[in-house]
Design brief:
This protein is 81% helix and 0% strand. With 85 residues, it is mainly alpha-helical. It has one domain.
Length: 85
């Protein structure tokens, strides 16, 4: 079932906001882990595994956010098209 563009736009905006908040929390966790280990250089063999995993998760969320922003733009364009036509 297709959702109306306005409802879809609202859902996407909420999802992006929630994912952005998750990215912020992951950034704090990464910083904390780097401080704990006293290693901030990702190429250092002593760089914490947990921080690597958190970085990977954060990067994946950023890719998802970018895809959702594209979908949001398409949804907004559809709304504008319907209003104009």
């Amino acid at each position: 079932m297709k959702h109306p563009p306005l409802a879809e736009t609202a859902r996407i905006e909420t999802l992006i906001a929630n994912l952005n908040r998750s990215v912020e929390l992951l950034n704090v966790d990464i910083d904390n882990e780097e401080e704990r280990a006293r290693v901030k250089d990702v190429s250092d063999p002593a760089y914490p595994i947990m921080a690597r995993q958190l970085r990977a998760r954060r990067d994946n969320l950023n890719v998802t956010i970018a895809a959702l922003r594209q979908r949001l733009e398409a949804s907004e364009a559809m709304i504008e098209e319907r209003l104009a036509g």
